[in-house]
């Protein structure tokens, strides 16, 4: 923030700060989803594809055939509900494969990422979807006290989740499972049920993130969410979410999101080419890991 203030006079203006928050809202929802999965000791790489496929299917059910839709022309409310159900359904499939069949979470969700990416391209026929009802854009376009509704929603989601993790037995169970699944099971925690619920919740949150992204962009293309998972993991790691499970906080994860949002905005104001942003994100991750290693004095497994 200090660097930004010296780099560009418009950086600390109210308009630019709101712009950073609005641009970070979709990412925040997906980071929240991934953070819950990581705390439980698992991975979910498919969340970036959920960001694309969930709102796309909702739009295709609503749009007429003349606008590349399925021609069903379902009511808008049903289309929005479909977005949430698609996210929940994908999360449930991931959860069943990982929890019940005991398959490797990394490989399962990587395969699901590829499957869903292919389904998105096939369903949209590689086209960009336009002309969705205004309700698909409401979260990104409507404001309260000049701040987009998507920002308020993301803030509320992080706040509520943070309280649940700290004070509710579900949150304590999640940390226990991520720390030592066998010990958690021996303590009477219903590990399978909690993990399945985490995957479903993550799918729904990613679907909401996709809806926010749709409103922010104003359309849905066949590569929506592509490569987003790298930024999601960057924000989570920078925010102190442990890849080993059982550690991390929502405040830390939110800090990671905002740091990346500020960095991207600063680079844009400094007229740095977007091609360099991913490389800079990687450097930030390495720097964050080294700082954590020095400050904690503990080796990182």
Provide structural commentary:
The protein is built from 13 helices and two strands. It has one domain (2-296): ABC transporter involved in vitamin B12 uptake, BtuC (Orthogonal Bundle), CATH 1.10.3470. The longest helix has 27 residues, at 191-217. It has helices at residues 2-7, 14-39, 47-62, 76-100, 105-124, 138-141, 149-167, 169-179, 181-186, 191-217, 228-238, 250-269, 277-296; strands at 143-144, 147-148. The protein has 301 residues and is mainly alpha-helical. It has a two-stranded antiparallel sheet. Its main location: membrane. This is ABC transporter permease. Keywords: Cell membrane, Membrane, Transmembrane, Transmembrane helix.
Q: In what range is the share of β-strand residues?
A: under 5%
Q: What order do the helices and strands follow? A: HHHHHHEEHHHHHHH
Number of helices: 13
Percent helix, as a range, is over 70%
What would CATH call the class?
A: Mainly Alpha
Number of structural units classed as domains: 1
Shape: globular
Using the coordinates shown, work out and report the CATH topology. ABC transporter involved in vitamin B12 uptake, BtuC
CATH architecture: Orthogonal Bundle
**Main β-sheet, spatial strand arrangement:** 1-2
**Class based on secondary structure composition and strand pairing:** mainly alpha
Distance between the termini: 32 Å
**Sequence stretches where pLDDT stays below 50 over 5 or more residues:** none
How many strands appear in the DSSP assignment? Answer: 2
């Amino acid at each position: 923030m200090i660097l930004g203030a010296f780099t560009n006079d418009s950086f600390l203006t109210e308009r630019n700060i709101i712009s950073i928050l609005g641009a970070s809202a979709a990412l925040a929802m997906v980071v929240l989803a991934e953070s819950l999965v990581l705390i439980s000791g698992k991975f979910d790489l498919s969340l970036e594809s959920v960001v694309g496929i969930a709102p796309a299917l909702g739009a295709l059910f609503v749009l007429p055939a003349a606008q590349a839709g399925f021609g069903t022309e379902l009511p808008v409310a049903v289309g929005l509900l479909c977005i949430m159900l698609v996210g929940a359904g994908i999360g449930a499939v991931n959860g069943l494969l990982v929890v019940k069949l005991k398959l490797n979470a990394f490989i399962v969700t990587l395969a699901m990422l590829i499957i869903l990416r292919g389904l998105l391209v096939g369903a949209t026929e590689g086209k960009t979807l336009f002309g969705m009802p205004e309700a698909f854009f409401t979260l990104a376009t409507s404001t309260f006290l000049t701040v987009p509704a998507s920002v308020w929603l993301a803030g509320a989601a992080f706040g509520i989740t943070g309280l649940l993790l700290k004070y509710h037995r579900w949150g304590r169970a999640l940390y226990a499972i991520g720390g030592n699944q066998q010990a958690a099971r021996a303590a009477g925690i219903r590990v399978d049920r909690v993990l399945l619920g985490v995957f479903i919740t993550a799918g729904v949150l990613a679907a909401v993130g996709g809806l926010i992204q749709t409103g922010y962009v104003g359309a849905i293309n066949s590569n929506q969410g592509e490569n987003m998972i790298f930024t999601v993991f960057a924000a989570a790691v920078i925010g102190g979410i442990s890849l080993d499970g059982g550690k991390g906080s929502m405040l830390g994860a939110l800090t990671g999101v905002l740091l990346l949002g500020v960095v991207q905005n600063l680079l844009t104001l400094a007229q740095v080419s977007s091609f360099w942003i991913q490389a800079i994100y990687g450097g930030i991750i390495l720097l964050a890991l080294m700082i954590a290693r020095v400050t904690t004095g503990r080796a990182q497994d």
